[in-house]
């Protein structure tokens, strides 16, 4: 009988290829039809293994969730970039390979990302999601997030609405 272990740990430069692959598949799954095709491709190609390796070597706070020997997802966290929000921390990205979605791994990764922010001394956290990305909105609401702000971001000349969710410490 074998047991597969699920764990979350800080990413290492050697994880760059797996993170880039997750970014690629998760973005295609989540944003195809929402972000204009050419712009989506450009954004995915820009974030290949070399980009992630450089980010990790420079100290970006990236966590990976592993299932057995496979890297199933990642979260990128740090200081909140939206100064108008009353939260010190932010989850910049939280993505799972599509085949691992809907199995509870996202909840685990979110909880561990939140703990990472608390251990780094950040009080509260914010997450942004495209308003048309219903699965993400549902996930953040299920995690107890409250909608706290709206904004827009332009992708390939197309302005898309995004929502911020917030959690107090």
UniProtKB/TrEMBL annotation:
PANTHER family: ACETYLTRANSFERASE, AMINOALKYLPHOSPHONATE N-ACETYLTRANSFERASE-RELATED-RELATED. Keywords: Acyltransferase, Transferase. InterPro entries: Acyl_CoA_acyltransferase, Bact_Acetyltransf, GNAT_dom. This is Ribosomal protein S18 acetylase RimI-like enzyme. PROSITE patterns: GNAT. CDD domains: NAT_SF. Pfam families: Acetyltransf_1. It comes from the Bacteria.
